[in-house]
Amino acid sequence: MAGPETAGPGAAETVAAPRASFQRRLLATTGQKVAWTIVALFVLAALAAPLIAPFDPNAQDLRHTLQPSGGGHLLGTDDFGRDQLSRLFYALRSSLVIGVLTTFGVALIGLPVGLLAGYARGALDVVVARAIDIGLALPSLVLALGLIAAMGAGLRSTVIALIVGYSPYLARVVRSVVLQVRQEEYVESARVTGVRPWRIVLRHVLPNVLGATTVQLTLIFAFAIVGEAGLSFVGLGVQPPSASLGNMLAEGANYTLEAPMLAIAPGVAIAVLLMALLFAGDGLRDVADPRRSR
Amino acid sequence: MAVQLTVPAADGGRRAARRRDGPVARSGRLAGRVALSLLQAVVVAVGATSAVFLLMRLIPGDPARILAGPGGSVTEEQIAMTRRELGLDDPLPVQYWDWITAAARGDFGTSLVLGETVSDLLGDRLVVTAQLSAYSFWLAVALAIPVSVAAARWQGAAADRAARLVGSTGIAVPSFWLALLLIIVFQGYLPIFGYVPASESLVDHVVHMILPAVALGAGFAALVFETNRAGLVETLGSDYVRTARAFGIPEWRVFGRYALRNAFLPTLTIMGIQAGALMSGALLVENAFALPGMGRLIVQGVLSRDYPVVQACILVIVVIFVVVNLLMDVIYALVDPRVRRSRGRA
Amino acid sequence: MTAPLLALDDLVVSLRSNPALRAVDGIDVEVAPGEAVALVGESGCGKSVTAYSLLGLLAPGLAARGTVTLDGAAHDLADGDRLRPLRGRDVAMIFQDPLTALNPVMPVGRQLEDVLRVHTALHRRGRRSRVLELLERVGIPAPDRVAGSYPFELSGGMRQRVLIAMALSCRPKLLVADEPTTALDTTVQAQIMDLLRDLVHDEDMAMLFISHDLGLVAEFCERVYVMYAGRVVETGTVRRVLERPDHPYTRALVDCLATMGQGADRLATVPGSVPGTDAMPAGCRFAPRCPYAVDACRTTDPRLAPLPDGGQAACLRIGELPDARSGLTGQAEGTR
């Protein structure tokens, strides 16, 4: 309908039909289809690791260490002769567990805190908003290091550290959306007519926040995976012999000359998964959270 | 971590507290704005350092017992005395105050494990980490800003599309993995490991720092590129750029004074937020290149629960981060009159 | 008519990605020196695109074709950059939304100075004082204070005055005003229009006034081009076109205005909507919405043809239509 006159620089683009299903709109472009397919494949590989892994990820074979790819070992073997591909599948399992737990944890903390900070007025608002600022002033990884110092290295500490590190980011986004929504007329009128605050939040504010929250949680899932890799890379995350993308990289770092594949393969997995998740997050933003899409 | 969560929209809104029909301002309220930013920075710094302080109190194990001597050979009395000396019997706020004021004087206590004072341990390592972060930052800015300008100028051209592809890949590559890749590629050509102070040999210093700086700066550069390009595309399509063109302002001036300056605001915000990620990333990248920075120290500290060391490292990073963000706030206010001339946050 | 100041000849604006889709499809517009000419029509009919192509300011996705003759010199519209020397100097333009049309992070005085720097030989101090003169000229009470203000610190009317001052700064021969009052309150709207009229008169500028508000057009302009779906469908003196419109589309527009003038509580509109560039009807483009359309209208594309009493209209059934109601211009006063 819109003639070129009414549109901006992107004049020629046609507007997608507004009532198409959520799924249809999300997977509208080839890029989005590819991104979500990659994410799905990674999740499947992680879930099905025991079925598809050609070897026991922890079975050592000290006569065949640091083998290049071939001879039944698609990605070669590591310094203990363990099959690299099998370890990669199991590492994805760790990443998936950590990603999912972190995402849930962040949603559980960040969402209510953000709602509170956005909707409360007066002293409570100031205190919670400042608390979020303070959380943001502690770089997530550094905060995680501090928490791990207190709790000891390991998967449990990693998850808790990542939850604490990332919650302020969700809280901030939620707060800013709530601040916008609460100025809408229907929220104002609900307030004026004496609807109870918690009811307003549940009925009017929360539904508006969910889009932005979903997008943000997709990103947090992605960053939890990188976060784990970073912490495990320096030996503070998932502890060997359990495989994780980070501790596989750490091992690979010792053999960059002899077996570069050890350091390359897990990194490729991280980068591809991350790229797919970021791209998928962008697509999700366009569909679920149009007010923020670029 | 290569990237930290970024929410340009939310943060842009936070800083650019717009007042559409505000009164004609008397004069620049820059001083007031800076004072406000400073106050907020102090509140955040006190909060964040308190959090660090409390966190370290969560560490299991009694530091006095560790410090008093090897287990079994010390009496309860000696431990009690050490506790008093360390001030561990004082109320928490008093302990915090003692700790933070001592830290301000450069006294971070003594390492529980290494036996040296923490400030001695930190000294040179802090310099290395700061250098690495700073080099990466400037490398990224020097690369990303001109490329983003060119990409926005020739929007949609093959070079623009290529740059965007590299950019979105760069964001997804963790710095510590890129470090490994660079090691794999350049081993045998460049010295990979170790550190040479600039005072000893500037050339060797640069040669040793170049790969770590590239590894750490790449993701940051990609993010700055994407933000600045997106900002430029938006401002170049804006009404005021059209006005400037309609009045015959030369294209180079339209680009510099009208488009780039406005596009730079969100970029500045991202740079501030990402400064923390950059420093965190430095800790990891140092590990890959065996640079004697804070990274190794803090990891060892965490593993051995050497709380004065961990506390000091985190404190230093947090303070740097807060100061960097304060600087960004001030620059932001200098560039954007809407922030400078409105009272505080909306 | 004397030799025109501006002559737009066979302007076509099409999508770069698909040249068959035309936002403007072969129009001619002429403006005589000192004359105020209106370009009217619903949004999406190609008015603003016409104005922007005049200065080579089209969005990157659009391409123009045709020539513009300004003061006897012909320029090819295909290359927007070649039109740059005209911008600001010969032709100045003011815009619909004065808030977004000014750089938000630059004091408005500096933005005025920027324009003077390009087009005049004035030095720094000379530019400063000229800025204050200009601001005073457009009725700004405290020019020195306003010059140091940022757009967000000024009201909508003040911002539009600043833009007008910018337009005046180089004494252009033609002022293109793209819906200059649409974003303003009604009272401010009247002030700005009065200011524009005085300036155009005093400076002996011609004005191309783009609007969908026939009331304003009736009051301020001498001739009018009515545009529909990228074509000029009727043209002539404002008096004739608005009092005795010949084209059914013009009639529909005039009827809307008349209804509004009589205090209708609902905003009157022409039923239906302007067809998109990708869905142009085969015959007359207005036929699907036209109450008088016959079969021939759906197959034959009418061209502009001279009318007996001057002016032109593009309609197959000119002369067969019932007489138009008249007396619109009297009612139009009431809308302001």
Automatic annotation (TrEMBL), chain A:
One of its GO terms (biological process) is transmembrane transport. The chain crosses the membrane at residues 34-53, 96-120, 140-166, 261-284. It is found in: Cell membrane. It comes from Jiangella asiatica. Signal peptide: none annotated. InterPro entries: BP-dependent_transpt_permease, MetI-like, MetI-like_sf, OppC_N. It is a multi-pass membrane protein. Its main location: membrane. Pfam families: BPD_transp_1 (PF00528), OppC_N (PF12911). The keyword Transport applies. PANTHER family: OLIGOPEPTIDE TRANSPORT SYSTEM PERMEASE PROTEIN APPC, PEPTIDE ABC TRANSPORTER PERMEASE PROTEIN. Residues 92-281 form the ABC transmembrane type-1 domain. GO terms for cellular component: plasma membrane. This is ABC transporter permease.
Automatic annotation (TrEMBL), chain B:
The chain crosses the membrane at residues 34-56, 135-153, 165-186, 206-225, 263-289, 309-335. One of its GO terms (molecular function) is dipeptide transmembrane transporter activity. InterPro entries: BPD_transp_1_N, MetI-like, MetI-like_sf. CDD domains: TM_PBP2. The keyword Hydrolase does not apply. It is found in: Cell membrane. It is a multi-pass membrane protein. Residues 126-328 form the ABC transmembrane type-1 domain. GO terms for cellular component: plasma membrane. Keywords: Cell membrane, Membrane, Transmembrane, Transmembrane helix, Transport. The keyword Magnesium does not apply. PANTHER family: DIPEPTIDE TRANSPORT SYSTEM PERMEASE PROTEIN DPPB-RELATED. Belongs to the binding-protein-dependent transport system permease family. This is ABC transporter permease.
TrEMBL record, chain C:
SMART domains: AAA. InterPro entries: AAA+_ATPase (IPR003593), ABC_Ni/Peptide_Import (IPR050388), ABC_transporter-like_ATP-bd (IPR003439), ABC_transporter-like_CS (IPR017871), Oligopep_ABC_C (IPR013563), P-loop_NTPase (IPR027417). The keyword Ribonucleoprotein does not apply. PROSITE patterns: ABC_TRANSPORTER_1, ABC_TRANSPORTER_2. Residues 6-254 form the ABC transporter domain. The keyword tRNA-binding does not apply. GO terms for cellular component: plasma membrane. GO terms for molecular function: ATP binding; ATP hydrolysis activity. Belongs to the ABC transporter superfamily. This is ABC transporter ATP-binding protein. The lineage of its organism: Bacteria, Bacillati, Actinomycetota, Actinomycetes, Jiangellales.
